[in-house]
Amino acid sequence: MSDRLDGEKSGTVAWRPPRWLRGPRPEKVPPLVGTAGAVVGLLNLAAGLFPRFRHSRLHALAEVLPGTVSALAAASSIVVGILLLMLAHGLKRRKRRAWVAAVALLPVGIAAQLVYRHSVVGAAFSLALLAFLVWHRRAFEALPDPRSRVKALLNFVALGGISFGLGLVIVNTHPHKIVGDPSVWERIKHVLWGLFGFEGPVRYVNNVDYTVGYSLGALGLLTVATTAYLAFRPEHPAARLTEEDEEKLRELLAKHGGRDSLGYFALRRDKGVVFSPTGKAAVCYRVISGVMLASGDPIGDVEAWPGAIERFMEEARAHSWTPAVTGCSETGGQVWTRETGMDALELGDEAIVDVADFTLTGRSMRNVRQMVKRIERNGYETRVRRVRDLEPEELARIQKAADAWRDTDTERGFSMALGRIDADKDGDAVIATAHLAPAEGEAPGPFGDLKAMQHYVPWGKDGISLELMRRDRSADPGMNELLIVASLQAAPGLKIKQVSLNFAVFRSSLERGEKLGAGPVIRIWRGMLIFLSRWYQIESLYKFNDKFQPRWEPRFVVFRNSRDIPRIGLAALQAEGYLELGLPRALRRKAPAEPQPCAHKDEPITADAVGTAA
């Protein structure tokens, strides 16, 4: 494979063949195709649920058909309507299976609308959508998403509830055809029995029993069939970092890991990876809610990045995922936007402290200096060591303490979190711990004299990046400052020259908004950020990081178009653990021991104590 395909021509950043040599662009489909599918589904649903309002030219033909045909048409219209509503999102994402199902269902829906409701308008809309799908059939080539048993369970609960609600509507749609005056409970029993295919206690006249019975049975069959499909469909493998991929990434990090402080976080076990054709660069990602989310810069040689980015975009197109990058550097953002045509937006700044320039002297460091001295006078001592230098028993105790001190139900972190403390594979990582001997006559705590810990991952050969900080709630305030200062002071002995601290979202906006002469727009935006800081660590992380006089490196988010920003933001919140969409905790499957995402710098930062444990 030619290295030039990766853009490794000497003296250039990237080489790419012209468009006419790269083959035709994939055919584009308007995003409104999903909306059109939903509208046609609603028309089919309405045609099956509600009786005819007037006679039409087709009425005479339909009346000579057997009553069972009309009842089957009503049931078919309802089922087709529900299925088209379920397929609308798949059509929008150009899923091949959604296209096949829609093309098969639309003729059935057209026939059902004409036979039962005599709806020429609804049939015309369905026919137009069918013609559009057939004409653009080559555009629907996206592969299916990974199989999920949870989706099957959610489908059974949600669709079962919808079917029950629609069943009540169907039972009560013909009030003048009901024999007698059945109670509400009898109508509910009729729906429940009908969903399982049995006759209920409610009776009708003029063959309405057929219509109601077939409709309820179809809804029940639809719920069972779609649930079975989701549960037993062929599985498409989910993105996971294999042992072979991990070894390749470690080789790239050994050569180029010093370029990006987020590079080592590519070794998270719940990330997938795509390599450039020559294997000299890679992009790590995770798929969340249909968003293919990469974090940080590509790994490897900068000149080989375009090849890895092209593979990333090909994978996104193949599955119709929304491509996005969060937390990339300015250089990374320039390469991403140039190679893909996407846009970039400044997301925030990363705080980086140069060890040679750090000092506790001076007026600007007075608060930190006083806090550290006060804690040291209270008897605390610190230890900063490589993970490989810790005894297994002590490392296990630190890990248990970190888990016990976590403040949230789920681990947080994605772009700046590793998710583990492993002496074998991550021996170069650094752990800083704070200890306090128990007072005379006082029993030691469950973790001995351990009161706080911080975990740093390697950043090239002479840097570390803060990954995790936790503390015992009974410890004195200021444990985070104490351990960061201890790590910076111990860094020369560990041959560390730079330390990456927390990531401050929208830091520049907060800084500009509080300056004299700031315009009304930036002041309003700063006010919104401060308001959101009540729930998310926006202003507090900025203020905390600023205590150590760091240099700020901007980080960017890369996106395809502006309408994708809300979806990307939602996926990023899910990835970082700030938003969880799924089943209630009691119904969730037990998570495996590996991989487990881990909190990165997720400890809540207070304005005074800065160190409430997470």
Radius of gyration: 30 Å
- Total helices: the number is 18
Would you tell me the overall average pLDDT? 77
Rough outline: elongated
- % residues in beta strands: 5-15%
Helix content: 40-55%
Most strands sheet: 12 strands, mixed
**Oligomeric assembly:** single chain
GO molecular function: aminoacyltransferase activity
Subcellular location: Cell membrane
InterPro entries: LPG_synthase_C, PG_lysyltransferase, tRNA-synt_2_TM
Transmembrane segments: 29-50, 70-91, 98-116, 122-140, 152-171, 212-232
Please describe what this structure looks like.
The protein is an alpha+beta fold. The chain folds into three domains: 28-54 and 65-232, no CATH class; 243-352 and 521-580, Aminopeptidase (3-Layer(aba) Sandwich), CATH 3.40.630; 365-501, Aminopeptidase (3-Layer(aba) Sandwich). The chain is 43% helix and 14% strand. Strands 1, 2, 3, 4, 5, 6, 7, 8, 9, 10, 11 and 12 form a twelve-stranded mixed sheet that branches. The longest helix has 26 residues, at 67-92. The chain is elongated, with a radius of gyration of 30 Å. Mean pLDDT is 77; it is low at 1-26, 53-68 and 583-614.
Topology:
Blueprint: H1 32-49, H2 59-63, H3 67-92, H4 96-117, H5 120-135, H6 149-172, H7 184-195, H8 208-232, H9 243-256, E1 272-275, E2 281-288, E3 291-295, E4 299-300, H10 305-319, E5 322-328, H11 330-340, E6 343-354, H12 366-377, E7 381-386, H13 392-404, E8 430-435, E9 450-459, E10 463-471, H14 479-490, E11 498-505, H15 507-513, H16 520-532, H17 539-546, E12 551-559, H18 565-576
Parallel strand pairs: 3-5, 10-11
Antiparallel strand pairs: 1-2, 2-3, 2-4, 5-12, 6-11, 6-12, 7-8, 8-9, 9-10
Helix pairs in contact: 1-3, 1-4, 1-5, 3-4, 3-8, 4-5, 6-7, 6-8, 10-11, 12-14, 15-16
Main location: membrane
InterPro entries: LPG_synthase_C, PG_lysyltransferase, tRNA-synt_2_TM
Protein name: DUF2156 domain-containing protein
